[in-house]
Amino acid sequence: MRIGPVTLAWADPAAPAEPVPLSAADQRRIAGFAPGRARAFLAGRALLARLVAEVAPEASDWEVTTGACVACGGAHGPAVVQGAAVRVSLAHAEGLVVAAAAPASALGRLGVDAEREPIEPAAARELADYLGGDPATVVQRWTAFEAALKADGRGVLLAPDAVRLSRCRAVIAEGGSLRLRDVSGPPGYRITLAWGRRGPSPGQRPA
Length: 207
What we know:
Blueprint: E1 2-3, E2 6-11, H1 24-30, H2 35-55, E3 63-66, E4 79-82, E5 86-93, E6 96-103, E7 109-116, H3 121-131, H4 138-152, E8 163-165, E9 169-172, E10 176-183, E11 189-196
């Protein structure tokens, strides 16, 4: 699927994933995962490998790997591409992995998030207390909020009140504006894409 400059794909993490070589950092990381989490991780890497090859067919000797955590600098941050000018983002929800990729020449920031819906009323109220607004529509706001945090690059370092959401845009304190788009994905899931043309925020590593 294409939305603007972004190509997206998704998969069931329980389905067999296409084998892909893992970076040394990814091999170390997956070694400590439980089987279910390892399958989801491999499904995400397979999706990203496919999208990077599609987005940058002229590139060679690239790899998808784990970036640094913006909060602590540890080797458990978001996926990044080394050796190709491609921005990528991943989202994991129960029973679904979503990947997004775009040429770095087309945008500077990219984030995607996915959640299964509907969620339990108690969870909806808890999220609404955190984000504000109506619990009935909180999943949409949550995926928009999470996608915007990923695109901005500062993630958990940003407080909820630092992000102002509208139907098609997120405005982030000291981070400018991002476009938001609901993605028509598999039934039972809410997927939101965020992207912007400005370069990475101070906490975001370039690909």
